[in-house]
Write a structure and sequence with these properties.
Length: 171
């Protein structure tokens, strides 16, 4: 081999081999469709989560990612959208496990609609004595969601810190 000869493929060879690989994957997918094999779809539950003896409900769990613990002491205002504005349902303080003491909605109160939880993280971090820049980057965090099927149980895990937050639908 000549000392100046490069063993690495050129960009053109790399791009062409990538195109060939993609084309072969498309050909295989078309063959599976022609054979009657259904295309792959994202994993989804086949129905509502059913817990024997437990009625459908709305629950939540808040985790403080800054301190790495349950968000004990976090105040949350829970509201329902009435078509024009969010109307307060109740306020509560997160317990030692990072949860509300009881489900937010259950039995007759568990109805379809749009809801909001307003997390008072500015007060929470101040009470914890967190050394953060003033003014805080985040102060009140809105968590908005809707319930469309009252046969399903919904659990909202929420993670937050001084600079970001995330939530998702759990069961």
């Amino acid at each position: 081999m000549h000392p100046t000869q490069n063993l690495a493929p050129s960009r053109r060879q790399f791009a062409l081999s990538g195109l060939a690989l993609g084309a072969s994957a498309l050909t295989a997918a078309r063959g599976a469709l022609a054979a009657g094999t259904p295309p792959a779809t994202p994993a989804q539950s086949s129905g509502p989560i059913v817990l024997h003896g437990v009625s459908p409900r709305l629950t939540m769990h808040a985790v403080d990612t800054f301190h790495g613990s349950a968000a004990t002491g976090l105040r949350i205002d829970f509201s329902r959208f009435d078509g024009e504005a969010y109307v307060p349902v109740r306020s509560f303080v997160v317990n030692a496990n990072g949860r509300a003491d009881e489900p937010l909605l259950i039995d007759d109160s568990y109805r379809c609609g749009r809801y909001e939880m307003l997390l008072h993280v500015d007060e929470y971090f101040a009470a914890k004595g967190a050394k953060l820049p003033r003014p805080a980057f985040l102060s009140k965090l809105p968590v908005r969601f809707q319930i469309v099927n009252t046969a399903e149980r919904i659990h909202l895990p929420i993670q937050f810190g001084p600079w970001s937050y995330t939530y998702s639908r759990g069961s």
